[in-house]
Amino acid sequence: MKTFAILLLLSGILFGQTKATVKPQLNLKALSEPIQNLTPQDRKVVDDAVKLIDQGQHAEALAALTRLTQTNSQNSALRVLRAYTLLELGNVAAALDDATIAESSGGHAAYRCWFLAQVAYLAGNKPLCHREINHVHSDPTYGPEAEKLRRTLDAHTH
Predict the structure, then answer these.
(1) Is the pLDDT of residue 4 over 60?
(2) Measured at the alpha carbon of residue 105, what is the angle toward residues 104 and 106, in degrees to the nearest 5?
(3) Alpha-carbon span 26 to 16, nearest angstrom
(4) Domains of the chain: total
(5) Residue 131's domain is classified under what CATH number?
(6) Domain range enclosing 129
(7) Model confidence over 60-73: pLDDT tens digits?
(8) Helix or strand or coil: residue 66?
(9) pTM of this structure
């Protein structure tokens, strides 16, 4: 957790902020459909990984999720969970890779776009962040926060 806090602080410095304003949150409800596509055994591994994440045992959760992505490489829920865990471990570049794969897997899902927008922001990928904000700006759940992120991003672009 300390690594993630330092990473957020550094991203704020890079964008001219004095405090971090972005921390992606897991929305397990939004991930439930792709999780249901897994076998019962794999769903059990996901449940255990989520418990590990809740306990702050991110390295262990990442190991379990990584094994699952080897056989379910396009499952968007696994990719979002891995991305979140990688962020918690301070690996923004790898988190961006997984979040990008998650967003491109399957049909449109506002949560995946919103999650990717936040990770792209943290990674300093302004074009990708803008693209994903545009995907969710009218969504009733994520749109208002996406517009706040757009204003923050635009304020530090000029």
Answers:
(1) no
(2) 115
(3) 26
(4) 1
(5) 1.25.40.10
(6) 2-18+27-155
(7) 999 999 999 999 99
(8) helix
(9) 0.85
